[in-house]
Amino acid sequence: MKQMKRNLMRTALLFSFFTISLFIFGCSDQSSPSSGQGQIMVTMVDSPADFEHVNIVVTRVEVHKAGADSTSGWTVINNNSATYDLLTLRNGASAVLGNTTLDAGHYTQIRLIVGTGSTVVVNGMSFNLNVPSTGIKLNHEFDIMDGTLYALTLDFNVDHSIHQTGNGQYMLVPTIRLVPVVTSGTISGNVAPISAASSVFAISGTDTVSTIADASTGAFKLMALLQGTYTVKVVSKNVLYNDKTIANVSVTAKQNTDLGTINLTLK
């Protein structure tokens, strides 16, 4: 009788272990990406402009796979409509446009579908922003590798993207840099005094990336800079202060170059 009880207990334990194993296996299989998939994450940052707000309504973000036709080759990576105030996306702030698994392969384009309701705010007044096309199509070739993350930054240059076409009439003609995170870094620092109200520029050849030092702290961060050497120029909007140029600032991929405090002198 004792031997029979021991056998029954052993059988029950084995059955319980088998049931738990099936449960764990099923849960882990659902949460893990399938074989042959990687991950894409697209974030957006912005350069300063002479507006108070620039609100862009993005209803969908898609990518296009190489070799597919222009209609069926698009894969949605974000289907949640959202409004982004571009002028808040600077000095280290960013917005995630898409973060999802994606079939491994070669891709050639990214498309932002823009909905109705985009606006610009000038002198406290809101104006409709005319978007000639519902889709902002960006040519950018990239590879999604099995089990790896591809991170990409969209640097929206508002100053070159918004055009006044008439009295109270504005049009969006997007100027956007696409910079893979794996090849880019940042430059940060503080401008003193805060009253200088400075703009900061990173210049490399014909390429310029800019931002505005924070009005309350003087802090700044230049985002999505391709690895290389830059000239950093600090331009004061306060006529009492001299501008300042710092040459040979090195940017390393996936790292930040901290310039510390940049002190502007009185004229």
Structure description:
This protein has 267 residues and is mainly beta. It has 2 domains: 34-174, Immunoglobulin-like; 182-267, Carboxypeptidase-like, regulatory domain (Immunoglobulin-like, Sandwich), CATH 2.60.40. Helices cover 13% and strands 56% of the residues. It is built from 2 helices and 20 strands. The strands form 4 sheets. Strands 2, 3, 4, 6, 7, 8, 9, 11 and 12 form a 9-stranded mixed sheet that branches. The chain has a 4-stranded mixed sheet with strand order 5-1-10-13. A 4-stranded antiparallel sheet has the order 16-15-18-19, with no helix packed on it. Strand 7 (119-122) and strand 8 (125-130) form a beta hairpin. It starts with a helix and ends with a strand. Mean pLDDT is 88; it is low at 1-33.
Number of domains: 2
Low-confidence stretches: 1-33
Shape descriptor: globular
- The share of residues in extended strands comes to over 45%
Distance between the termini: 102 Å
Radius of gyration: 25 Å
What class, by secondary structure content? mainly beta
Count of helix runs: 2
Residues in helix, %: 10-25%
CATH architecture of the largest domain: Sandwich
Main beta sheet: strand number and arrangement?
A: 9 strands, mixed
Taking all residues together, what is the mean pLDDT?
88
Number of DSSP strand runs? 20
